[in-house]
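does this look right to u?? heme C version
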Amino acid sequence: MIRSTSALLAFCTLTAMASLGCASNDGTSTAAPLPGDPTFVRDPALDVTVESAAGSTKSHSQGQSCMPCHQAHGPGPGRFTVAGTLHDSSGKPVTAGTLTLSAAPSGPALATVSVDALGNFYTTKDVGLDAKSLFVSVEGANGAGKTAMPFPTMSGACNHCHTGSAGVMLKP
Ligand code: HEC
Ligand code: HEC
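got this back:
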């Protein structure tokens, strides 16, 4: 676990340096490509199958968009098809719950993903978003606070739009 944290910190330090430009004296940039840049070279060993599970604490960075790193041109293990963070109505991550994806607003579930003990949900499985936009709903333990996005999403990068006080949130 300590090894994991320090590797992530080392990566973040690199990113911070890169975003400062790391310019050399003649003004040309020597920065390594940032996550998301098509020239970012990803280690194929990172393409593992992962999915959040109830009670798991393997994830991190609640509230941040996961996809810049957990994708084809990023450094995170597993290319996520859908990922984000579920909060209660006061904005705190909830420690249990479920994300459901469906083709119709209250249609049968195409896929479900469990919220982990840190409030994050993520998976590398095909949830159907490649093919079409889908309706999503979230609920806490035993269906508490269930709420649905009023229109379908074409992106599984939930935290990309749901940032800060607009986080994915349960009803009070
Ligand atoms: C800044 C890049 C970055 C962002 C943003 C990011 N991750 Fe990660 N993530 C990593 C890296 C790098 C590792 C590997 C850490 C290690 O093993 O030392 C990792 C590891 C993980 C792991 C462990 C995978 C395993 O089983 O080996 C999970 C789960 C995870 N991240 C989930 C998430 C979730 C969920 C989010 C969004 C809320 C997220 N990450 C956002 C870079 C990122
Ligand atoms: C492209 C931006 C975008 C993406 C990606 C996105 N959403 Fe939304 N979502 C919105 C907007 C805009 C609303 C409407 C907010 C409002 O009505 O105030 C919304 C509303 C919601 C709501 C209704 C409650 C609320 O917060 O208003 C839920 C639940 C929700 N989204 C969950 C998700 C989940 C889960 C994902 C990932 C699968 C996701 N969203 C991806 C933009 C997005």
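The mean pLDDT is 87. idk if thats expected tbh
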